[in-house]
Amino acid sequence: MSADKHLRSWQERFEMAEAMQPLLGKLYRNQGVEVLVYGRPLINTPTIDIIKAHRIVRRHVGEKLRLRESFPFIKALSNLNVKQCRVDIGKLAVKYWAEHDNADSIEAYMAQELASAIDRADEIEPRDVVLYGFGRIGRLLARLLIEKTGQSNKLRLKAIVLRGGRPGDLEKRASLLRRDSVHGPFNGSVSIDEENNAIIANGTYIQVIYANSPAEVDYTKYGINNALVVDNTGIWKDEAGLGQHLACPGAAKVLLTAPAKGEIKNIVYGVNEDDILATDMIVSAASCTTNAITPVLKAVNDKYGIENGHVETIHSYTNDQNLIDNYHKADRRGRSAPLNMVITETGAAKAVAKALPVLAGKLTGNAIRVPTPNVSMAIISLNLKAETSKDDINEHLRFISLHSELQNQIDFSESTEMVSSDLVGSRFAGILDSQATIADGNRAILYVWYDNEFGYSCQVVGVMQKMLGLNYLSLPVS
Predict the structure, then answer these.
(1) What is the pTM of this model?
(2) What would the pLDDT profile of 347-367 be if each residue is shown by its tens digit?
(3) Element spanning 121, H or E
(4) What count of other Cβ atoms lies within 10 Å of the Cβ of residue 393?
């Protein structure tokens, strides 16, 4: 191919991606349809990311998916009255072109594949959400909720609750939402209403409530009712502490973004969200590490059975550690986080049993905090009941990542060059590094990367939806 042909090919792809964007936007805003290509969302993504999402298809099926091959499916989708679902246009297109050599029957094919979502009654009522705390996870949850702004969005971010309220605080909070050293700038516009203590982000009016405890808050004063309060402060982890939120007028349920104590259910979305009952008032979304490893462990246990194992977490440092050496109540954590690797404890291995009881008592765990600001890795060493090999277990997990109920939790990489910074912003709970897999006989060692901030926040949003009864179809059915 000549240099000119390469350029023309690139321009064609770019123009095709640009033509997709308004259709994708209307599908989401008007019909609540989120379009993906092999698990990569196309909503609110730059043109170049649409092109990249198509290139990733080669990794999974051996051949690239051209934008001109997927565009007719997006056009057909926009002509169908499909509502409130996630549609993987990449999988639909690959399946179609494997069986057809022309586009004559695309519309009929789409109508058949998406029949369960066509003319679907939109009986889901929007629900109010309050973020109690606005730290690393709180701000990322805000980004995820705001990016889905529109009539079809059923999770309405109405308020954030903060301690303090000193002069200049509101602007500083807005600035932290607007800019992030790890995750980059906010995708949109952020402004403040100082007179009414509010942040306006992409048209979403977010009331800022200053309070030193839940007892000081009355959400109904701000028109907030029957709300889900997402506590991301980590201050309270038991029923007595978190129950303070339920006493607030306007609050209905509470979700903790940390492992809970006592009898509170720890939920890993994709694994045990069906354990959430309508009567559950307080639920935990477990930890980032538990969310990363549990889906992979379930997939392995379902096929091979797990006798026992050990999980070693190589975890980026967090706000709980010190920038320079100083007192800390925990062993070793007082030493400078950017300068040291720090051995510490993790309850993630034991916490797996709360989401996956079949593994109770079978796993041990430890953690090493390392001088990176985000993206962590779990090294999972397992003794299996059945024999396997590197190719066999990798192929099983690749299939699970594409064609199972865990496809939104497990990503699969075959790259020999991937490093931690490449995975900042990953929306998956965990990414299997298949090139690092070691397996022989009844032994297997798996390396699972995870964005311990953003990937975890995506899992939290899934739990939020489940708690509020917001159930979305994922099509095609794997």
Answers:
(1) 0.94
(2) 898 899 999 999 999 999 999
(3) none
(4) 23
* Separation of alpha carbons 158 and 204, rounded Å: 8
Over its C-alpha atoms, the chain yields an Rg (Å, rounded) of 23
pLDDT tens digits along 69-127: 999 999 999 999 998 889 999 999 999 999 999 989 999 999 999 999 998 876 678 89
**DSSP code of 178?**
H
Question: Which CATH fold topology does 127-258 show?
Answer: Rossmann fold (3.40.50)
∠ CA 290-294-298 to the nearest 5 degrees?
Answer: 170
Contact 230, 460 (CB under 8 A): yes
Residues 330, 351: Cα–Cα separation, whole Å: 20
Using CA atoms, how far residue 5 sits from 15, 64, 67, 179, 308, in Å, is: 15, 18, 17, 39, 56
Q: In terms of DSSP bridges, do strands 85-88 and 33-37 run parallel, antiparallel, or are they unpaired?
A: parallel
Task: Judge whether 249 and 219 are in contact, CB under 8 Å.
Answer: yes
Q: Please provide the size of the chain in residues.
A: 478
* Contact of 182 with 374, CB cutoff 8 Å: yes
Catalytic center residues: 288
For 249, counting Cβ atoms within 10 Å of its Cβ (0-12 exposed, 13-18 middle, 19+ buried), the class is exposed
Give all strands (DSSP E) within 93-210, no chain letters.
127-132, 155-162, 190-193, 198-201, 204-210
CATH superfamily of domain region 288-456: Dihydrodipicolinate Reductase; domain 2 (3.30.360.10)
CB atoms within 10 A of CB 473: 16
CA distances from 278 to 172, 253, 264, 309, 336 (A): 38, 10, 14, 35, 45
Q: Phi and psi (nearest 5°) for 389?
A: -140, 170
Distances (CA, A) of 258 to 265, 322, 342: 11, 20, 21
Return the domain boundaries, the chain.
Answer: 3-117, 127-258, 288-456
Helix intervals (H) in 305-435: 348-355, 390-403
Q: Which residues contact 350 (CB under 8 A, 6 or more apart)?
A: 363, 365
> Residue 197: how many CB atoms within 10 A of its CB?
18
Average pLDDT, the chain: 94
pLDDT for res 61? 84
Beta-carbon count within 10 A of 75 CB: 15
HEC profile of 370-404: ECCCCCEEEEEEEEEEEEEEHHHHHHHHHHHHHHC
